[in-house]
Amino acid sequence: MRAYVGATTLQLELLQRVSTFPLMTALKSSPLEINETRIGGARGLALKGELDFETATRFTEQVEFAVWGTQGAFVLDLTEITFLDSSGLHSLLRARALLAREDRPLALLCPPGTARRVLDLAGALDTFAAYSTVDSLEAALIPPQD
């Protein structure tokens, strides 16, 4: 232990207690799985896991890559999202903006659960075309014009 000049005994005891705590390890988030999907003829991505600060950038890159060379509506399946934070919400809004620049709709398959609750609490649910079931999403999709 180091000697600290001018430190009181109480300060030294607190320093010693603090330094004896085990090092905390970073909490590991479950990885985000991103797979291509097709719902009602529309191409899209199905997400599984946590869309958060650590995974949002990769998700955004995957969306940009997946959207390239497609036309019509694009679908994001959020059925198996287990965690969504503000970074994840921001990446969903970026995906919507990317498609809006090309005048294309983004449809979310978002049944009641984690993702829908976060979107609703953030006041962003109405920003998206969000559907609770595959059937309702398929019914709303208009096939792309070839």
Account of the 3D structure:
A hairpin with a 2-residue loop joins strand 1 and strand 2 (42-51). A 5-stranded mixed β-sheet has the order 1-2-3-4-5, with helices on both faces. The protein contains 5 helices and 5 strands, in the order αββαβαβαβα. The longest helix has 16 residues, at 86-101. With 146 residues, it is of the alpha/beta class. The protein is globular and about 35 Å long. The chain has one domain: STAS domain (Transcription Regulator spoIIAA, 2-Layer Sandwich), CATH 3.30.750.24. It starts with 8 loop residues before the first helix and ends in a 6-residue tail after the last helix.
Element layout with pairings:
Blueprint: H1 9-19, E1 33-39, E2 42-51, H2 56-67, E3 74-84, H3 86-101, E4 106-109, H4 114-121, E5 129-131, H5 134-140
Parallel strand pairs: 2-3, 3-4, 4-5
Antiparallel strand pairs: 1-2
Helix pairs in contact: 2-3
How many domains is the backbone divided into?
1
* Element order: H for helix, E for strand: HEEHEHEHEH
Strand order of the largest sheet: 1-2-3-4-5
* Shape summary: globular
Largest sheet: 5 strands, mixed
CATH architecture: 2-Layer Sandwich
According to CATH, what is the class? Alpha Beta
Structure class: alpha/beta
In round numbers, the mean pLDDT is 84
Strand content: 15-25%
DSSP summary: helix tally: 5
Q: What name does CATH use for the topology?
A: Transcription Regulator spoIIAA
The CATH fourth-level homologous superfamily: STAS domain
Gyration radius, in Å: 22 Å
Helix share of residues? 25-40%
Poorly predicted spans: 18-26
Total E-strand runs: 5
Distance between the termini: 74 Å
